[in-house]
Amino acid sequence: MDNNMNTKYLSTPLQIAVLSVAVSCATSLRAATPSTPQPLGGPVAGQYQFQTVAFSDSDEAKMMHRAYIILATGDHDYDGHRVKAMRQVEAAAKLLDLDLSGDLKDHQKQVLSDDKMREAAGLLQNVLGAAEVKGQPKITKHINAAINQINTALSVH
Question: How many Å apart are CA 157 and CA 154, to the nearest integer?
């Protein structure tokens, strides 16, 4: 037997394996690709498009609303900085068409209020990160200002 014969024999199983993988990949690719062109917005195009979510339905909106409720129900002993933080959150919410209404009757003692103010700052920090990532400088400005007011409020009392 000569070496050329052994080489052909050894390469044939390898060729079959490579061909099998190629056919498998082509079949998978074909299954994922529509056989006829689809109009934009058609059933296939819709599967691969990003869906936009209204800000009011997002996690950030829930965090903003929760932070606002916390600020609104906090103790009034912050030299006006709690209210200024609320106004900044209101301004950001207005830009985003977010309704911040809710029950604002639950005022707390000072120690609890301080903890809640820190919680609100943390929630707003998350919103700030999302606003920065999404390139929303007006929202970023108001949320930053709200966080600064909360920090000032916590240092006042």
Answer: 7
> What pTM was estimated for this model as a whole?
0.54
Tens digits of residue pLDDT in 58-110: 888 889 999 999 898 887 668 899 999 999 999 999 998 888 876 566 666 77
Range of the domain at 29: 3-48
Same domain, 44 and 62: no
Give the total number of structural domains in the chain.
2
DSSP string across 50-101: PPP--GGGSHHHHHHHHHHHHHHTS-S-STTHHHHHHHHHHHHHHHTT----
